[in-house]
Amino acid sequence: MPAQPSPIQSSPVQPASIRPAQSARPVTGGVIPPVCTPLTPDRELDLSSLERLCGFLLDGGVAGLFVGGSTGETAYLTDDRRARVLAAVVGIVAGQVPVVAGTIDLSTDRVLGHARTAARLGADALVATAPFYAPTHPAEIAVHFRSVREAVDLPLLAYDIPSAVHTKLPTDLVAELAADGVLAGLKDSSGDVDGFRAACAATARVPGFVAFTGSETHADLALLAGGAGIVPGLGNVDPHGYVRLYDAARRGDWAAATAEQERLRALFAMIGAGDPARMGRYSSAIGAFKSALVHRGVITSGTTSRPMIGLNDTERATVLGHLERAGLC
């Protein structure tokens, strides 16, 4: 079984209004972690910890960094803080790998503001969800992605995360926008493995299109289904493990890929460290990732954005236990 999607067979006809996007560092696949946003105990940006985190991820062999995703707490950050984090990461990376910028917001005009800022700050590609809060028809979602792509000349990846935006991107819409040159890729965090497989099949003949899974626990299956890479929140904690998984899949060593995936599945259980009687699952997950990074000596504080509830000493000890069992501490 090949480790990568089938070779390109043909090229779609693109509308005259859409040119192929230009990017200094193309996004072609691999492991691209959605970068955590380190905060000080008083919830200011911790740029020193961010620099260490980026260095840790680059040393792990990642193929790029995704700034402004769910794991980066982007929904909690002001526009100014989002821009500051992106500018810092672009400066730290200094062209070593692509920097993909999340432009996630409620409506097209708000996304366009983030997209223009990201282009100005040196991002290599953009990620956007469907609009949310107000109900949006698939035809309107198409207008949304086309508007962003036409306004900013950077590759645009669609972010399919129905748990957050309450809309599942239809496979036929993704395929249509890919064929028209609007979308350069997909970041699928839907949890729908069969749907991801269908999206890979529907876009397999589109030159340069890359489909990424956001799943920490089904990454091996997604790569087997034709995925180009992985965008795992847990990749902040163990980038080396996900790179080993990806490399094993690329060389067709599915036994090694599956073994690494099983280890990472066990490690991912850390997201349940927080007591569900006092906090939500998202608070628990982000708190666990940050606590793990503190235990590993990468960032200084596990502080999360308001109104998330932080882990207590017992819960942080649970995270440490997961790290120890995974051989990381």
Automatic annotation (TrEMBL):
The keyword Lyase applies. GO terms for molecular function: 4-hydroxy-tetrahydrodipicolinate synthase activity. The active site is at 159 (proton donor/acceptor), 187 (schiff-base intermediate with substrate). SMART domains: DHDPS. Keywords: Lyase, Schiff base. InterPro entries: Aldolase_TIM, DapA-like, Schiff_base-form_aldolases_AS. CDD domains: DHDPS-like. It comes from the Bacteria. Residues 1-18 have a biased composition (Low complexity). It holds the Pfam family DHDPS. Belongs to the DapA family. This is 4-hydroxy-tetrahydrodipicolinate synthase. It comes from Actinopolymorpha rutila.
